[in-house]
Amino acid sequence: MNNLLIEKVISLINNRNRQNYDLYKNNGYINLLSLYQQAIFEQTNDQEVLNLNVKEFKKVEFKSFDSKNIVGIYHLNKKKSKKWIIACHGFSSSKESSAIASYYFNKLGYNIFAFDFRNHGESDDALITMGINEEKDLVHALEFVKTNFKTKEISLLGFSMGAHTVNRVAISNNIKKYNIKFAVADSPYFETTKVLKRIINTIGGTLIGNFLDKILQGVYKVYNEKYKIDIEADTITYRIPLCKNSFPVLYLHSKKDKVTDYQDSEKFYNLRKVLKVKDALHIFLTGEHIRTQVLHTVMYWKLVEDFINNK
């Protein structure tokens, strides 16, 4: 397989969503927050999203495990609270989308923290690993929140790649000190190789589709040899029964999701039964990828509230 084609595919995977880059100048993240807020309100007509004052979000920066600069934003609840929700966005998205998608937690009395994974939004250039290094970014976000704010408990909310990353942290055996109470995983995928195949197939079109399996092997080889990331060997299946300390996870997915498979949420849910935590699972019959929140708003948040109250 042509090495130039392989490198081109890797470049496309790591081509950040920078259409809004100019908006980040002069605290332009507020503008992006406003755009996402208005979009959710128009789709849901949920007044609660407008109760989240985007102008009160503040920006911070911290370093990840490899000294990459990670940019985050936070919002303090009007009622003094030591409860935090950390929101994790999906592939090619940004902190603004996950921050606004956390709006209902403002009503529930949580402070909100969201950050850009490596090679997304305002964070530093770095190889996107679909959860492998992003897991370490999330752990450093947990450390930043715990160190810089008075936290009584922290919980997590993740979408797609962010949901997969949340699941990785949930079985990492390195989280007890953060007192994580629960997580909500919206439309996660289970296998990195499976989702990477879909991404390459989507961005590559017909030509790449004809050579997809060979291109995948080439991509795996470059990731492994050049960047020391063994995607094929990376599996979280074996990590679940070895986990000694986890927290409850609510899995939300749609049968109509064409990006990630709802059966991946079922797989997480079933494999995690050995952990003896109060996980929950709900599969919506309709809704595109990470769209059940706006399509089934009332039920979505009721499921979240009931899960929190019963954890």
UniProtKB/TrEMBL annotation:
UniProt keyword terms in alphabetical order: Hydrolase
PANTHER family per UniProt: ALPHA/BETA-HYDROLASE, ALPHA_BETA HYDROLASE FOLD-1 DOMAIN-CONTAINING PROTEIN
Alphabetized Pfam families for the sequence: Hydrolase_4
Chain ranges of the Serine aminopeptidase S33 domain: 80-199
An annotated Gene Ontology molecular function: hydrolase activity
Alphabetical list of InterPro entries matching this protein: AB_hydrolase_fold, DNA-binding_regulatory, Hydrolase_4
Matches recorded under Gene3D superfamilies: alpha/beta hydrolase (3.40.50.1820)
Name the record gives this protein: Hydrolase
